[in-house]
């Protein structure tokens, strides 16, 4: 398994589950069920889609990372239908942006989600505009991001990544950081969406050991700029040091975080 495949597997097996409380809170609030036709932007390895499908929803996921999508297909599609254009009666998984869904939808979506907080706003804004065209009028569009920095232990770790990345950061690129207070609202307005409420959810990052913590955090992509400006060995060393205050006597690592979601409407 090469490093890129290992990273996708680390996301699916270690990190993605940290956001389960967020998915559950959103689906419960919006009553996701058999009546729901959901489009997931940046669906990754498909855990959020799997949870929606378990509630009876019909789901479509798009993502630019083919490796993560391959893992999503393992979760959501019967084995004969796991090709790169794989779909079933309840799930479709497509590599690309929401424009791919134009070719596969027979009717409008009733809900759009963008749960991945690591996606740069410069990439997400145009995707939201395209996705909104595929949703019925009044349909919810859910955006998610980090909560207040003072309530996110991981914010302290990301400041280390931002410091290491700064010398090599490209002009116009976004640093790895938690969300600003009004980032989600600004993103929704830029996509022409109306605001319709928000919520906060506790999403602790808990790992069985330090190795799992480092691998899980690396799988998010939040440390890519730091690695490009330095080297992976140096970033791993500094990440391990930054995580030390969150390591418990039994070897487990836990960082308490709050995530925020915004409900907008088409």
Describe the protein in words.
- The chain is of the alpha/beta class and 266 residues long.
- It has one domain (3-151, 174-206, 254-265): Vaccinia Virus protein VP39 (Rossmann fold), CATH 3.40.50.
- Helices cover 39% and strands 19% of the residues.
- It contains 11 helices and 9 strands.
- The protein has helices at residues 3-15, 20-29, 47-54, 66-76, 99-102, 121-132, 154-165, 183-190, 210-218, 224-229, 232-243; strands at 37-41, 58-63, 91-95, 111-114, 140-146, 194-202, 205-207, 253-255, 258-265.
- The strands form 2 sheets. Strands 3-2-1-4-5-9-6 form a 7-stranded mixed sheet, sandwiched between helices. It has a two-stranded antiparallel sheet with strand order 7-8.
- β2 (58-63), α4 and β3 form a beta-alpha-beta unit.
- α1 crosses α9 (210-218), α2 (20-29) runs parallel beside α3 (47-54) and α7 (154-165) runs antiparallel to α11.
- The N and C termini lie far apart (42 Å).
- The model has no long low-confidence stretch (mean pLDDT 89).
- GO terms for molecular function: methyltransferase activity.
- InterPro entries: Methyltransf_25, SAM-dependent_MTases_sf.
- Residues 39-78 form the Methyltransferase domain.
- This is Methyltransferase domain-containing protein.
- Keywords: Methyltransferase, Transferase.
């Amino acid at each position: 398994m090469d490093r890129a495949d290992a990273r996708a597997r680390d996301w699916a097996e270690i990190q993605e589950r940290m956001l389960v409380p967020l998915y559950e809170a959103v689906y419960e609030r919006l009553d996701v069920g058999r009546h729901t036709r959901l489009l997931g932007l940046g669906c990754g390895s498909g855990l959020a889609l799997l949870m929606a499908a378990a509630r009876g929803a019909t789901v479509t996921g798009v993502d630019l990372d083919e490796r993560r999508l391959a893992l999503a297909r393992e979760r959501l599609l019967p084995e004969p239908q796991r090709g790169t254009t794989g779909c079933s009666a309840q799930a479709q998984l497509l590599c690309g942006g929401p424009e791919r869904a134009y070719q596969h939808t027979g009717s409008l979506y009733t809900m759009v989600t963008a749960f991945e907080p690591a996606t740069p706003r410069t990439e997400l804004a145009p995707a939201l505009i395209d996705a909104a065209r595929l949703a019925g009028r009044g349909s919810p569009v859910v955006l998610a991001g980090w909560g207040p920095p003072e309530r996110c232990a991981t914010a302290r770790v990301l400041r280390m990544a931002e410091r290491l990345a700064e010398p090599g950061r490209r002009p116009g690129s976004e640093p790895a950081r938690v969300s600003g207070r009004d980032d989600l609202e600004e993103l929704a307005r830029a996509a022409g969406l109306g605001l319709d409420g928000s919520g906060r959810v506790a999403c602790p990052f808990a790992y069985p050991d330090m190795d799992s913590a480092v691998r899980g955090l690396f799988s998010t992509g939040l440390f890519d700029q730091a690695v490009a400006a330095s080297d992976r060995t140096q970033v791993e060393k500094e990440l391990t040091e930054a995580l030390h205050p969150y390591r418990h006597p039994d070897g487990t690592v836990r960082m308490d975080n709050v995530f925020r979601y915004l409900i907008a409407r088409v």
